[in-house]
Amino acid sequence: MRRGPLLLLTAITFVTWIGTRMTAVALPLVALAETGGAWATGLVGGTAGLPLLTVGWWGRGLRDRLTSGRALAGVMAVNAAGLAVVPVAALAGQIGAVTLCASGLVTGAAGALLGPAQRALVADLADGYVARGGRAGPARWLAWQDLAHRVSMIFAPPAGAWLVVAWGVRPLLWCETVVVALAAGAMLAVPAARRHERAPSDGTTAGVSALDVLRSRPQIAAGVLMAGVGGLCWFGFTLGLAVLGVEHGRPGVLIAAGVSGYGIASVIASLLVPLVIDRLPRPPLMVFSWVALGAAFVLLPRAAPDVAGVSALAAVAGAATPWGIAALNTLIGEQTAGAERRAAFTMETVLHSGGASLGLLVGGVLIGWAGAGPVLVATGCAQILAGAAGALWLRGAGSGRAAGEVRCPEAKAGGRRRPSSV
Q1: CA 177, CA 20: separation in Å to the nearest integer?
Q2: What H or E segment, with its residue span, contains residue 54?
């Protein structure tokens, strides 16, 4: 297998992420304009989070079928239909709570399936690429995909805001719908992984439980736990810095400095990750990443209101995070295959992204009760404790590498895996 399908899949996911982040800018504006109520601006995002939190239940049978570009194209087509609900309703003057909730549920369900399936298919195709003599295995290709995700995170929101001003909200939503539909058509060119590259070697059947996968692979379980705590505590950074700026009489300044520092540093780190991830031990990298992120959170209130200090600490957090994500994705790519691989990626998405949504839901109340500074310190300490607990868990399971049998062709062929005990 050549690397063309992998490059195409990475490019398509990059395009769809751009559309998703631009939509996040446009939809609240159209909801506000059409309903006249600020309460409606959160309906799409709120309802989109429900399928994500429950995908482990309702998506269990579906995720095992998403093993080819054709299957992913179908999910992307559903996503495009969900995006089209709002501009179509706007034409008819029928935008209301029901319309916004319907769009959120459809796009949320498609996104909950699409994210893990894209990562799993990248790992499947990379296994085949290595088996046929390629040098870049799942670790590097998943790291490139994460880089595309972070690049879209940096430039897509401001680009979306600019396009809202230049075009208007409805033309932007129509454009995004068309782009996602075209991307779905391009996805048809991505082949399915060969059966021996995506089926478990021990004959495990489809529909496996994500919890069973985590129980049998303590390294992945520890990484997912740390990522879940990191997602849950993320509101401390976004909401915390926003409120901290207001408390110091600099509204908008500290959050802008923090997000900029974090984003630029995370992109730079993501450029380096694919080059060296094959040569680094995975579990210590996960522990270091989340502990460093937590330490930055703890120190941020001390740095405020100094913009340079906040930017520097946010840059430390941004530089650390991609390493932990890459290490966890690498472990999933190395230690699982087939239905187990898709279950593990789904659990990672549910706990990390779903935890972030849950944190944002309750974060405002916590900050209003305790204050931004104490909440930042508390969320930082929680991530440090999660890293310490993960390190102890991994040390206790150091002999458990045999429990997580390595299935990828690269490892079977005596590839470049490094020892991964803490």
Answers
A1: 10
A2: helix 43-58
Q: What is the residue whose two structure tokens read 């500074």?
A: 373
Q: How far apart are CA 142 and CA 147, in angstroms?
A: 9
**Mean pLDDT rounded to a whole number for the chain:** 85
Residue 27 CA to residue 90 CA, distance in Å, equals 11
Token code pair at residue 290: 């989340």
pLDDT reported for residue 158? 83
CA 213 to CA 14: how far, in whole Å? 29
pLDDT digits (tens, 9 = 90+) for 116-171: 999 999 999 999 888 888 788 899 999 999 999 888 888 888 888 788 888 887 88
- With b for 16 or more beta-carbon neighbours within 10 A and e for fewer, the 34-57 pattern comes to bbeeeebbebbbbbbbbbbbebbe
Q: Which amino acid makes up residue 253? A: V
- Tokens 């998703």 label which residue? 20
Identify the residue whose tokens are 């506000």.
32
Distance CA 383, CA 363 (A): 16
As a whole number of angstroms, the distance between CA 304 and CA 296 comes to 12
State the Cα–Cα distance between residues 137 and 125, nearest whole angstrom: 9
Rounded distance, CA 20 to CA 269, Å?
23
Distance CA 291, CA 382 (A): 9
Tens of pLDDT, residues 208-250: 778 889 989 999 999 999 999 999 999 999 889 989 998 888 8
Q: Which residues contact 90 (CB under 8 A, 6 or more apart)?
A: 30, 34, 170
Give residue 146's Cα distance to chain centre. Answer: 8
First to last CA, the chain: 35
Q: How many Å apart are CA 178 and CA 166, to the nearest integer?
A: 18
Share above pLDDT 70 across residues of the chain, in percent, rounded to a whole number: 87
Q: Band the pLDDT of 24: cuts 50, 70, 90.
A: confident
Token pair 């998506």: residue: 59
pLDDT given for residue 203 in this prediction: 42
Q: Residue 329: CB partners within 8 Å, gap ≥ 6?
A: 119, 123, 138, 139, 142, 143, 146, 348
- The structure tokens listed for 238 are 């976004």
pTM for this prediction: 0.84
Neighbours of 297 (CB within 10 A): 27
Closest CA to 84 of 25, 14, 166, 170: 170
